[in-house]
Amino acid sequence: MQKNVIMSVDHLSKDFVIRGKKLGEKNKLLHALSDVSFDIYEGETLGIIGESGCGKSTLLKLLLRFWERSGGQIRYNGTDIDEINTESLYRNVTMVSQSTYLFDATIAENLRVAKPDATDEELMAALRMASAEELVQALPELAQMPA
Predict the structure, then answer these.
(1) Average pLDDT over every residue of 113-127
(2) What is the model's pTM?
(3) Residue 113's closest CA among 105, 57, 121?
């Protein structure tokens, strides 16, 4: 069975101009990403790893249209990212950032920030995906304690 390509990135690039701070200092062009290409197929998950400063956050910001790309294409299900309604894009694409924030609330309440109407089963599935289900099952009081 052939799987559908759900995301395609072709020759993506992002450049930044760093303006000279001193009189007479020239601007510098920084290539944050250059010629990045990949496809993600239905049912696959993409993990982006690398050293600090290698462009992971830049790539994610481009994939979510937080920033405009300097070149290349991003397509979801064959549709260019610029043609996709922002609400639909955010409903269908998920990002887990490097920074973790926990509110002074229970674990369940923290999880419901992402999906306020999540059922207990959905919360347990999220804990399973985060490899935290066993911890909460071993110490059930954690689920109701402030994080």
Answers:
(1) 87
(2) 0.59
(3) 105
